[in-house]
Write a structure and sequence with these properties.
The protein has about 300 residues and is α/β, with parallel strands linked by helices. Helices cover about 60% and strands about 15% of the residues. It has helices spanning about 5-30, 135-175, 180-260, 265-290, and strands spanning about 35-40, 50-55, 60-70, 75-85, 95-100, 105-110, 125. The radius of gyration is 63 Å and the shape is elongated.
């Protein structure tokens, strides 16, 4: 046997050993170390047996069967095997997904919740429907129709805005034309001449206002000084007045007590005055009727009529 034949046989033997090792590792990986699950979808476009099963984006198994469900033909039953100890739980949700943009369809399972109960082998994983290509195409057609209407509307509004802009530019050209520029320049020249003419008067008025402001400041200072000088005597007078009012209030209180204490005496005095007034009235009437009683004690006899 030549040397080339020996080398070729050695290489073939190495490749055979490597192939057997890989086959053994793959079988060891997926045989006896996977657990079965199932899920149901109404649309499983592109999903075939052998497709990858992703748990939180990690490849954990393969799809073993895709077929209509026996109990409900409107659903697609998907059988899958995942690696043992994969934490599939009650909150995990299976849905149609993609490994990458260029690859085929895959079955994606969410991680669920840490506090959720783990699903035993053979259980059914909750599912969530993904939008089909037909539905996406229909929605895109609706969006396109709306976009066409919106573009037409915007085009009309843009035309209106363009017309308004042209009118505005025309008005601006009219306003900023040479005749208006000459008028504005003339108005500015008149304003400058007026300022030059009236500047001495404005300066005098400013000086007078400054002098008036200084005089007002001096007046305010004098008023403040006067108020400060008068404040103390006024405060003393107010204190004396308050003391006098308190004394008067006390005197009125004493008089009120005195009047209440002699209330019955006042009533007697008033009754005596009333009796004396009545007696005086009677005396006055008596004097009017018999004034001679003030001179004589006895009344004169009546004159006899001469015979």
């Amino acid at each position: 046997m030549t040397t080339e034949a020996k080398v070729g046989a050695f290489v073939l033997g190495c490749f055979s050993i490597l192939a057997l090792t890989l086959i053994y590792l793959i079988n060891a990986e997926f045989s006896g170390r996977t657990v079965p699950y199932r899920t149901y979808l109404r649309y499983a476009g592109g999903l075939e047996p052998g497709a990858s099963v992703l748990f939180g984006g990690i490849n954990v198994g393969k799809v073993t069967a895709v077929r209509p469900a026996a109990s409900d033909p409107t659903k697609i039953e998907i059988m899958l095997d995942v690696k043992q100890h994969t934490p599939v739980n009650e909150k995990s949700v299976a849905k149609l997904g993609l490994v990458s943009v260029m690859s085929g369809a895959a079955l994606s399972i969410t991680t669920g919740g840490n506090d959720a109960r783990r699903l035993p082998p053979g259980s059914t994983i909750s599912s969530q429907e993904a939008a089909s290509l037909d539905e996406i195409a229909g929605k895109m057609a609706v969006v396109a129709d709306n976009a066409n209407g919106l573009i037409t509307q915007v085009r009309g509004e843009v035309d209106g805005i363009s017309g308004d802009a042209r009118s505005l530019l025309a008005n601006l050209n009219t306003v900023t034309g040479k005749p208006n520029q000459q008028r504005i320049r003339s108005a500015l020249d008149n304003v400058n001449e007026m300022l030059e003419t009236e500047r001495p008067k404005i300066d005098r008025l400013t000086d007078q206002l400054n002098a008036l402001s200084q005089h007002a400041d001096e007046t305010m200072q004098n008023v403040n000084g006067t108020v400060s000088d008068v404040r103390e005597p006024i405060g003393k007078d107010l204190a004396d007045l308050q003391s006098t009012l308190l004394q008067a209030k006390q005197l009125l209180s004493d008089m009120q007590v005195l009047v209440r204490a002699n209330d019955y005496k006042i009533d007697d005095t008033i009754e005596n005055l009333r009796t004396a007034t009545q007696n005086l009235d009677e005396l006055t009437d008596s004097v009017k009727q018999r004034p001679w009683s003030l001179v004589r004690i006895k009344q004169l006899e009546d004159r006899k009529v001469p015979k």
